[in-house]
Amino acid sequence: MNWFNEIESRYPVDKWKVNGVHIWPLIRVRIGFWLRKQSFLLQVSPKALKKPKVKLAKKIYLGVTSMLWLILYYIRTPKKRYLFIGAFSHRESINQIYFNKFFDPIIENIVCPDRHVAVWEYDAYFKEKKYQHRQYIIPLENLVIPFTYLLSLIKVTTPQRRTSILPEFDTFVQEIKQHPSFKDFDEAFEDIFNNTDIIKYFSVFYEVLLRKLKPKLVLMLCYYSFDMYPIIFACKKLGIPCADFQHGPQGELHFAYSRWRNIPEGGFNILPKYFLTWNETSAESFNERVQHNQFHQGVCFGHPWVDYWRNRKEEATYKQRKRRILFSLQPIGDLLTEDEIAMIRTTQERYQWLIRLHPRQLFQQQAVEVLIQKNGLKVVLNEATFQPLPSILAQVDIHCTRSSGTTIEAAMYEVPTLLLDPIGVSYYPEEVANGIAYQPNTFDKEGFINGLEVLEQKKRKAHQQKVSYSCKYQEILDSLS
């Protein structure tokens, strides 16, 4: 983060625009993923934006029918007060009904949702799965695909013009080229410029839809997923506030949320105005990191999924008397390191291990199963992955992870976390200071096992009802819109 802030202090990043789009947030996030070796995640154009490879006759048929659907949707859709935008990866199944962990508990607390709520969702599985509040949901692909066909026609018949304001940008590019960490990064800049073309054209499309819906507030999950940028850009032009909902850790080291220093007047036009956090501490921390800037503000909203589950009484699933440990995996680095495997294998007769895949690595489940079998690990995988997280946290004694945001959610249930990577310690300094997260003496098998023994001695406090924000959802939404 120090490097980002150094760049922001030496270059006019607040003025860099291509096609009217502020490109510094795009560059910052792209570099962040590059450094974390995750450039394949999120920062690629969505599948819906790619030209369908079909025969011409079928392409014409699909284009006409999808355009007719879009026209009917436009005609029939009344204005809505709130527009929610998320993805299937934000859902969990309860009795085979898929709930959006953050939005559905809010929708249930909104007065007259039929009149006030619309939901757009990408990567939707409407044909295969049952959704909670299905009546409000439109797959984002249904909206985007017809415009994609129209856009391909425009690109063929209209010369493309790209405008740019890039003072000192060439100097910045040369500096990047000389940096040892950015070998072969050159293509990323051209890709970012191409992405501004997509943002520009799709924002016009979204403007038309937003003028019809007339939402007072747009709430989204993971603003830096590419699908979100054109929507935020359109909202900025129409004066509609956007709010990004916390979906994981967003601390001091998170490039998408931390330490924005050189913010333009009016704010970056592809960043939300509001950043809704799970607790007051996170909101205060965010506002400090953006120097209490009025154009991008942290606001405490609470954790809707945790509040929802606190109102439910679930029967315990894991009935063994052993202490239970939840291990939250992440789509970063190795599935399990040698030290993590050794820690589980050495202690599996003493503890019951539950391994939970991150929603974005479900495609790796078979690889994890092979790894488990190969190393003779006795763990619960399937149930731990697909049961709602709050119901699991209510039943476990210790949580382990490298740096997962489940650390924060575990703290809400008074479950201590053993942090298995130094980056996790950097992400959660407050939790470490409060003793709800633990830094081992050494980041290896011996250090991990010793950490488990330390946490085992901690007597878990009786679960106390924490502050619930569910009764305030409507009030908070009204204050933001």
Task: Describe this protein with a few key phrases.
481 residues; alpha/beta; Rossmann fold; 2 domains; 6-stranded parallel beta sheet; 20 helices; globular
Strand order of the largest sheet: 8-6-3-10-11-12-13
Number of strands: 19
Unreliable segments (pLDDT under 50, ≥5 consecutive)?
A: 38-52
In whole angstroms, how far apart are the ends? 32 Å
Helices and strands: which structural class? alpha/beta
> How many individual helices?
20
The oligomeric status of these chains comes to single chain
**If you average the pLDDT, what whole number results?**
86
- C-alpha Rg, in Å? 23 Å
The major pleated sheet works out as: 7 strands, parallel
Strand content: 5-15%
Outline the structure in words.
The chain is of the alpha/beta class and 481 residues long. It folds into 2 domains: 1-301, no CATH class; 323-457, Glycogen Phosphorylase B (Rossmann fold). Helices cover 42% and strands 15% of the residues. The protein is built from 20 helices and 19 strands. The strands form 4 sheets. Strands 8-6-3-10-11-12-13 form a 7-stranded parallel β-sheet. A hairpin with a 2-residue loop joins β4 and β5 (97-100). α8 (186-213) packs across α9 (228-238). Mean pLDDT is 86; it is low at 38-52.
Annotate the secondary structure layout.
Layout lengths: L1 H9 L6 E2 L2 E2 L1 H12 L20 H21 L5 E6 L3 E4 L2 E4 L3 H4 L5 H4 E6 L7 E2 L5 E3 H18 L6 E2 L3 H10 L7 H28 L3 E5 L6 H11 L3 E4 L28 E4 L2 H10 L7 E4 L3 H7 L12 E6 L9 H10 L3 E6 L8 H10 L4 E2 L1 H5 L2 H5 L4 E4 L4 H7 L4 E3 L2 H6 L1 H6 L2 E2 L6 H13 L15 H8 L1
